[in-house]
Specification:
Order of helices and strands of chain B: HHHHHHHHHHHHHHH
Distance between the termini of chain B: 46 Å
Radius of gyration of chain A: 19 Å
CATH class of the domain at 3-78 and 169-248 in chain A: Alpha Beta
Number of strands of chain A: 10
Radius of gyration of chain B: 20 Å
Number of helices of chain A: 10
Strand content of chain A: 15-25%
Number of helices of chain B: 15
Oligomer: heterodimer
Structural class of chain A: alpha/beta
Shape of chain A: globular
Helix content of chain A: 25-40%
Strand order of the largest sheet of chain A: 6-7-8-3-9-10
Distance between the termini of chain A: 43 Å
Number of domains of chain B: 1
Structural class of chain B: mainly alpha
CATH superfamily of the domain at 3-78 and 169-248 in chain A: P-loop containing nucleotide triphosphate hydrolases
Helix content of chain B: over 70%
């Protein structure tokens, strides 16, 4: 298993945002995390990336316990993410945003940067090359020098995905990548996610767009009020009465 | 060519102020507002003043010791205080600066208290003296002694400032600089890109302390006299204003701010006490119309970027 969550509980004050959640991801699969608003999906992302420490429970990545590690260490180990409300570096260009993503896969320090040593120049050239590859992959070639915030919302999402990919993750966490997008934009992102999978990167996806979730995901985990209420293939989940009840409510007899 | 020691003196202070403006720019580049730079400056100044007057060490060693001590104390202060953010960090570092100043006032046996330290070896005079030993005379350049002294101080400071600007300009345009600025723009996003934000915050805080201490040592050897009154919180705020007025997002901002704000009172000297009213009004107008500071990235792009825009179009 690439990622294993065991009995994750996260309590804010008296409120359990996550309660005893366990599931795991195999390498190369794409798992959708769904549930009504406030179910604890983003909290779960924040716990996995150590933005929040779990109140109890264990997280293992590649067999190694990561639940008390700092966020930047977790990124180095191979988990990167995007954010529900896009968090690009506002005053940077598209290219610079993605270049920042290369940080944990490069090593030049203060003195090699100032002296522009041969290694530093080589590394900087590699960073640029990789950045261009990623921008091409997400369909943003030629946007290098644009200020990131000047792009329309849909393209900003792609910059964020490219930036997360620049960390060379084994596992990428996408938090509502198609929120607010129209059908054709959604399809393009779905294709991009397939491309990401094609590179051997495992995907954990939070999404409300059900038609996308159903077509893209191998498996789904459903959260409601912080608890895992179901897990299975999209077909199983669609037929699951507990899930239907969580989303639509109970039918009056 | 007319060499006016007064103008050169003002120009030398501009250069020292540029170093101070850069010292706060560096800490601001990871989004930390430090008001302790007057404190670090005074540590540098007093260290070299004491070492050169009491122990008779050469200026070079005094400057080195003062700079390193300020940096070391910056590191020690930075470790606990960098958990604080925004205005809390500002207050904590302002408090640090005041503690240092009060310490220098009250430690009379060492620092002469409020009287200060006089007779600090002057940079220019020391250069002249050592050159004269090897038979050099300013008259061979057609200069009087005091003209040569001012000119040598200015030239040395200019070279130092250019090197420091070069250092930080290159740092800014590298992996490390990108990490700095990403932290300033969005700390959480930076962290999720694998950037160790604690390390870079302490790095910039320490670099700022080193540079402020370095500027302090130069200040001591250019004025020849220092007292704790040179390093009050007025100084801390003045340094901050260099960066805020000039712009704190790119390196040219504080350079411009320090230059302009040091020159303005001199240019307005004819207006005597009214000049500080004008100084204040200029600041207010600036904050209303350009809160990001006079110089920002779009302005630089407009000045030098016209070419690159043409290239993009082609």
């Amino acid at each position: 298993m690439l990622l294993e969550l065991k009995n994750i509980t996260k309590v804010f004050g008296g409120l359990a945002a996550l309660e005893d959640v366990s599931f795991s991801l195999a390498e190369g699969e794409i798992l959708g995390l769904i549930g009504p608003n406030g179910a604890g999906k983003t909290t779960l992302f924040n716990v996995v990336t150590s933005f929040l420490l779990p109140t109890s429970g264990d997280i293992k990545f590649c067999g190694e316990r990561i639940s008390s590690q700092k966020s930047h260490i977790i990124t180095q180990k191979g988990i990167s993410r995007t954010f529900q409300n896009i968090r690009l570096f506002d005053q940077m260009t598209v290219e610079e945003n993605v270049m920042v993503g290369r940080h944990c896969r490069s090593r030049s320090g203060v003195f090699s940067s100032v002296l522009r040593t041969i290694d530093q120049k080589k590394e900087e050239a590699q960073i640029k090359e990789k950045t261009n590859q990623l921008l091409e992959m997400v369909g943003l070639s030629g946007y290098n020098a644009y200020p990131a915030i000047s792009l329309p919302y849909g393209l900003q999402r792609r910059v964020e995905i490219a930036r997360a990919l620049a960390c060379e993750p084994k596992l990428i966490l996408l938090d509502e990548p198609v929120a607010g997008m129209n059908e054709s934009e959604t399809e393009e992102i779905a294709r991009l996610i397939k491309k990401i999978l094609g590179q051997g990167i495992t995907v954990l996806l939070i999404e409300h767009d059900m038609s996308m979730v159903m077509t893209v995901c191998d498996r789904l985990v459903v959260l409601n009020f912080g608890q895992k209420i179901a897990e299975g293939t999209p077909q199983e989940i669609q037929r699951n009465p507990i899930v239907i009840e969580a989303y639509l409510g109970r039918e009056e007899n | 060519m007319v060499i006016n020691p007064y103008y050169l003196q003002v120009a030398s202070f501009i250069l020292i102020n540029i170093l101070l403006g850069l010292s706060i720019y560096i800490t601001l580049s990871t989004g930390q507002l430090s008001l302790g730079n007057a404190g670090f400056m005074s540590i540098g100044a007093f260290t070299t003043a004491l070492l050169t007057t009491k122990l008779g060490l050469p200026i070079f060693l005094g400057v080195l010791a003062g700079t390193l001590l300020a940096g070391l104390i910056g590191l020690l202060i930075g470790l606990p205080t960098l958990r604080l953010q925004g205005v809390y960090l500002a207050i904590a570092t302002l408090g640090f600066g005041e503690v240092v100043r009060v310490l220098f006032i009250n430690w009379e046996s060492l620092t002469n208290g409020a009287v200060g330290i006089a007779g600090i070896p002057h940079l220019g005079r020391t250069i002249l003296a050592s050159l004269q030993k090897s038979g050099f005379s300013p008259e061979s350049l057609g200069l009087k002694n005091n003209e040569f002294i001012s000119l040598s101080v200015f030239s040395l400071l200019l070279v130092i400032t250019i090197l420091v600007v070069f250092f930080f300009w290159r740092l800014d345009h590298s992996r490390v600089g990108r990490a700095f600025h990403s932290i300033r723009m969005d700390e959480k996003a930076a962290e999720s890109m694998g950037i160790d934000i604690t390390y870079y915050k302490i790095l910039t805080f320490t670099q700022g302390a080193l540079l402020a201490g370095f500027a302090g040592t130069l200040f001591a050897h250019v004025t020849g006299y220092i007292s704790p009154a040179d390093f009050t919180y007025h100084r801390a705020v003045e340094i901050l204003v260099f960066a805020v007025f000039g712009g704190s997002e790119i390196i040219w901002g504080p350079i411009f701010g320090a230059t302009f704000l040091t020159m303005m009172p001199e240019l307005l000297r004819a207006l005597s006490e009214y000049r500080y009213i004008i100084y204040g009004v200029v600041l207010v107008i600036m904050m209303v119309f350009r809160p990001q500071g006079f110089i920002d990235a779009p302005l630089i792009d407009r000045i030098i970027g016209r070419k690159s825009n043409e290239n993009n179009a082609a």
